[in-house]
Amino acid sequence: MGRNRQRTTVAIAALAVVALILTVLALHRGSSPAKSAAVSSPSLPPAVSASSVVRPSATVSAAGDATHSPGLSPSAHATSSSATHPVVAFLGDQYIGGDGATSRPLRWTSIVAADLGWTERDFAFGDTGYSTGGKIKGGTPYSARVALVAAAKPSIVIVAGGRYDIQSSNGPTQIKAGVTATFTDLRAALPNATIIAENPLWSASTPPSALALIAADVQQAVTAVGGRYLYIGQPLIGTPGMLASNPADPNDAGYAALAKAFETAYNN
C-alpha cells in the first residue's frame, strides 16, 4: 500500500516536470523568429511627398532684384530655385516686367518660365529700349544692363523691346547702334549662352512703319552673334480688350496671349 502511494507521487511529479518543459518550449517558440524579425526589420527611407519635389513654379520672390519696372516692385526674380532648371534671363521694357498684370506670375515671362521649366531672371525697366533709358529715373538702355544679366549666369537670354526707341528722339542710326551694342555685348559677356531676340511688339493700334525697321536691325544683330530671331507676330493688335487701364500695357489676357505666341514660335 505504501509502495503504491510512493509510485503515484513519483508519476505525478514526472508529469508536472514534463508539463513545465512543454510550457517553456511553447513560450520560447512563440517569441522567436517572427517576433524578432518584426522588431529588427530595417527602416525604409521616408516617402517623397508632392510638396517635397521641386517643380517649376511661377511664384515670384522679392529677393535679388536688379532693376525696376514702373508700377511693379523690383523685377529680377526666379520662378524656381532648382539647379536642374536652366536659368533664363529676360531683358527688356515693361512688357518684360509685367506692367498691367494683376500679379507677377501672370506676366508672359513667368507663364513661359513655368510652362517650360525655366528658372526666370527678369531684368526689366519700363520706358526703355535698345538705345534709350527713357524718362523714368534710373532707366538705362539694354546694353547698360548686360553686366547684370551676365552676373545671373543664364544659359539662355531673351531680349524684347523696341517700341520706346521709336518714341524717343533717337534716329535710325542711333537706334541701330544701340541694337548692335546690345547683342555684341551679350555675346562677349556670355560666349556660350543661347541668345534669342523677340520681334518688337506693339499694342492694339496699328504699329508705325519704323517698328519694321527696328525689327530688321534686331534680326540682323542677333543673327550676327549666332543667336536666334523669334517672330511671334503682333498678338495685341486689334484687341483692345487685352490692354490694361494704361493702354500701353497688356492685361492678364494680353500677357497670356503673348506667352502663347512665344511658346508656339519657340517650339517650332
Which terms summarize this structure?
alpha/beta, five-stranded parallel sheet, 41% helix
If you had to describe this structure to a student in words, what would you say it looks like?
The chain is α/β, with parallel strands linked by helices and 268 residues long. It has two domains: 2-34; 58-266, SGNH hydrolase (Rossmann fold), CATH 3.40.50.1110. Helix content is 41%, strand content 9%. It is built from nine helices and five strands. The protein has helices at 2-31, 33-40, 94-97, 108-116, 146-151, 163-167, 172-189, 210-224, 252-266, and strands at residues 87-92, 119-124, 156-159, 194-198, 228-230. It has a five-stranded parallel sheet with strand order 2-1-3-4-5, with helices on both faces. Helix 4 crosses helix 9 (252-266). The protein is globular, with a radius of gyration of 35 Å.
Number of helices: 9
Query: What global shape is seen?
Result: globular
The CATH homologous superfamily name of the largest domain equals: SGNH hydrolase
**What's the CATH class label of the largest domain?**
Alpha Beta
Order of helices and strands: HHEHHEHEHHEHEH
Q: Could you give a short account of the major beta sheet?
A: 5 strands, parallel
Helix/strand structural class: alpha/beta
Supply Rg.
Answer: 35 Å
Determine the strand fraction and express it as a percent band.
Answer: 5-15%
**Helical percentage:** 40-55%
* Spatial separation of the terminal alpha carbons: 113 Å
CATH topology of the largest domain: Rossmann fold
Number of strands: 5
What spatial order of strands do you see in the largest sheet? Answer: 2-1-3-4-5
Q: What is the level-2 CATH architecture name of the largest domain? A: 3-Layer(aba) Sandwich
- Overall average pLDDT: 79
Number of domains: 2
Poorly predicted runs are 23-82
